[in-house]
């Protein structure tokens, strides 16, 4: 793509619109993989945590929690690219049930911290 120097807001907006139409990634990719080690079972969540995929996270976590045989269960969110409002609600629901999460990116860490604060505030109100 050629570089364009823009001098007005209108030109910048038109250039941005052109770029947005050219640079599109496949949407709604979602995958949950399970990795087992002697001490831990990890659910590796990848892609877009959006509708309709949000509904898969809870049941997968519950099913993975069976037959742990003393291992920890961790949900790895390092490979998430999008978290919708519904995705945040699903993470928050699992957090309230005791799920443990790992994350890598700044945005995902921020979302987890915000949800942990929300959980703490709810627990102090009771």
CATH topology-level fold name:
Transcription Regulator spoIIAA
End-to-end Cα distance, whole Å, is 56 Å
Individual helix count:
4
> Class in CATH?
Alpha Beta
Overall number of strands = 4
Give the second-level CATH assignment, the architecture. Answer: 2-Layer Sandwich
- Helix-and-strand structural type: alpha/beta
- The fourth-level CATH homologous superfamily is STAS domain
Which term fits the overall shape?
A: globular
Order of helices and strands: HEEHEHEH
Average pLDDT figure = 82
Query: What kind of sheet is the major sheet?
Result: 4 strands, mixed
What does this structure look like?
It is a single chain. 45% of the residues lie in helices and 25% in strands. By secondary structure, it is α/β, with parallel strands linked by helices. The chain has a single domain (26-125), classed as STAS domain (Transcription Regulator spoIIAA). A 4-stranded mixed sheet has the order 1-2-3-4. The radius of gyration is 19 Å and the shape is globular.
């Amino acid at each position: 793509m050629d570089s364009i120097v823009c001098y007005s807001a209108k030109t910048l907006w038109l250039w941005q619109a052109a770029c947005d139409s050219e640079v599109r990634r496949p949407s709604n990719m979602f995958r949950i993989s399970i990795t087992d080690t002697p001490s831990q079972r990890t659910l590796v969540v990848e892609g877009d945590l959006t509708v309709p995929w949000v509904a898969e996270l809870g049941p997968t976590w519950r099913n993975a929690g069976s037959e742990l045989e003393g291992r920890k269960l961790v949900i790895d969110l390092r490979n998430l690219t999008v978290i919708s409002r519904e995705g945040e609600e699903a993470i928050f629901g699992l957090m309230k049930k005791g799920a443990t999460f790992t994350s890598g990116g700044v945005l995902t860490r921020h979302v987890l911290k915000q949800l942990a604060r929300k959980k703490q505030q709810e627990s102090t109100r009771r």
